[in-house]
Design goal:
- Residues about 1-25 have low confidence and may be disordered.
- The chain has a single domain (about 25-185), classed as OB fold (Dihydrolipoamide Acetyltransferase, E2P) (Beta Barrel).
- The chain has helices at about 1-20, 35-40, 170-185, and strands at about 30, 40-55, 60-75, 80-85, 85-90, 90-95, 105-115, 120, 130-135, 140-145, 150-155, 160, 165-170.
- Strands 2-3-4-8-7 form a five-stranded mixed β-barrel.
- The protein has about 190 residues and is an alpha+beta fold.
């Protein structure tokens, strides 16, 4: 009986392991703006002022120093160190699928979360990073391209496609404030 059980488990587990090896390494939960506002520990408009990369275990992380320009949520800090997986350190390079890209000197709207270890990351990888720019009417706008990474809807556990977002800065900041006031996130 025991041998038959092990044999049937092996027949089920081996194909599952084979197909699991074909799946992408990470599947993201698609987050709405409201989800990101409530789940984030910090929401800031910030300017990138520096970076360096180093190993954390076998992974390389790029440490981005950002200077806070405006804050909606989180501790009152003038700078934050944000870690993004991937980068180049000590002669090695790692690319991480779905990891957002920052540029020194550029401003972003960032949805951030702090881990138990105290490290700060972008909420939902590239989902929590919005570029800042001006539109034809000289108004500030935020934008984010759709992530090409596999995503699921948490409610149904079905695959979904991400969507790009572009809106006026005043509109997104009003929405963040309203969400935080309703959800007690301030």
């Amino acid at each position: 009986m025991r041998r038959a059980l092990h044999g049937s488990m092996r027949r089920v587990l081996l194909p599952l392991l084979f197909f699991a090896a074909l799946l992408p390494a990470a599947i993201l939960e698609r987050l709405s703006l409201d989800d990101m506002a409530l789940k984030s520990t910090d929401i800031v408009r910030a300017k990138v002022v520096g970076s360096y990369a180093d190993f954390r275990g076998s992974m390389i992380y790029t440490h981005w120093k950002v200077q806070v320009v405006e804050r909606w949520k989180g501790a009152d800090r003038s700078t934050i160190e944000v870690l993004i997986p991937g980068g180049s350190a000590r002669g090695s390079h790692q690319d991480v699928s779905g990891a957002p890209k920052l540029s020194i000197g550029k401003e972003y709207l960032l949805f951030l979360w702090k881990s138990r270890s105290g490290s700060t990351y972008i909420t939902g990888l590239s989902q929590g990073l919005f570029d800042l720019g001006k539109n034809a009417g000289n108004e500030w706008v935020v934008s984010r391209a759709a992530s090409g990474e596999p995503m699921i809807d948490r409610a149904t556990w079905t695959p979904v496609a991400d969507e790009s977002i572009q809106m006026r800065y005043a509109e997104i900041t009003a929405r963040i404030s309203a969400t935080l006031n309703q959800g007690g996130g301030h």
